[in-house]
Amino acid sequence: MYYRTLTFLGRAEQLEAFHEKKAAMDLDGKEVSKEEIVRPRVPLEACLASFSGGEEVPEFYSTALNSKTTAIKTTGLKTFPDYLVLQMRKFVMGEGWVPKKLDVYIDVPDIIDISHMRSNGVQPGEELLPEGASCGNKAEPARPVADEDIVSQLANIGFNYFACQKAAINTSNAGLEEAMNWLLSHTQDPDINEPISQDPMPAEDTIDEASLQTLVSFGFPEDVSRMALKASGGNIERATEWVFSHPEASSSVSADSSTNNVKDDDSHISDGSGRYKLMAFVSHMGTSTHCGHYVAHILKDGRWTIFNDNKVAASVDLPKDMGYLYFFQRISS
């Protein structure tokens, strides 16, 4: 995320002092009161800039060059929907693979303008990459290579080096967490610690059809379910967690499906200005992912109302900066 240096200079000093105080109190077995907690503040526009800004993609295979190169990926919106939902990534994997809540404030204005995030398609001087490789002499598919960074991190934990290589390859180098899940699901494999065979590339891992149908019955797309089962070593519980922690996979499949079915006919999709008004948000009350409670605030009849299970009341001190999900309605031009 991007921070405004001048604005947050004083805040950074407060945070440093708070963390020193908290560390000292933890040693004494004391807890910091709610009134003493100092949280970082991040403007929503910084989150949007991070989301839509350029991201370097190393080892990107270009079908135009027929080789790997470094690409720059940006994210934009083709149309602006009537309703916009923004999810703040406030839960991450901490040390020891323990889910951790990011305790930060998000400064969210009542009105936002995301017009700058509209994608303008192919620009002058640009051209779309061909969908397949060129029709020349096709090279034999390269043998998959394990990401050495993932392998070394797993090996440092204490796993066998060859097992770490297999974990990285069988999860398509998706990341440390995916490789770890695969390892934990294959520790009993008789050849788990044996060197990788140099024979021609083996066929792709088979997916258990029963497990696949179970995930599909949960409402997940079949393609996403296959990716999840492969990344989790066939474990349904871990595969479910993988789907929820990789929303971009579902978005990608949905986009592909929409493209195939609609055939670029977007006439039925609503579109308009990029100005939105905040209408509701959901926040999490609690210190971690293992405990707490979700409540909703909704702008109803011109005033904010809190919905806490079956309790409904007017909101006096609106915790707008502690939301997890924000709901916006497009403002008509």
TrEMBL record:
GO molecular function per UniProt: cysteine-type deubiquitinase activity; zinc ion binding
SUPFAM superfamilies: Cysteine proteinases, UBA-like
Keyword set includes Repeat: yes
InterPro entries listed in its UniProt record: Papain-like_cys_pep_sf, Peptidase_C19_UCH, Ub_carboxyl-term_hydrolase, UBA, UBA-like_sf, USP, USP_CS
Domain UBA: 145-186, 206-246
Top-level lineage group: Eukaryota
Domain USP: 1-331
Keyword field: Hydrolase, Metal-binding, Protease, Repeat, Thiol protease, Ubl conjugation pathway, Zinc, Zinc-finger
Catalytic reaction annotation: Thiol-dependent hydrolysis of ester, thioester, amide, peptide and isopeptide bonds formed by the C-terminal Gly of ubiquitin (a 76-residue protein attached to proteins as an intracellular targeting signal)
E.C. number(s) listed in UniProt: 3.4.19.12
A Pfam cross-reference name: UBA
A single GO BP: proteolysis
UniProt similarity note: Belongs to the peptidase C19 family.
Protein name: Ubiquitin carboxyl-terminal hydrolase 14
Species assigned in the record: Aegilops tauschii subsp. strangulata (Goatgrass)
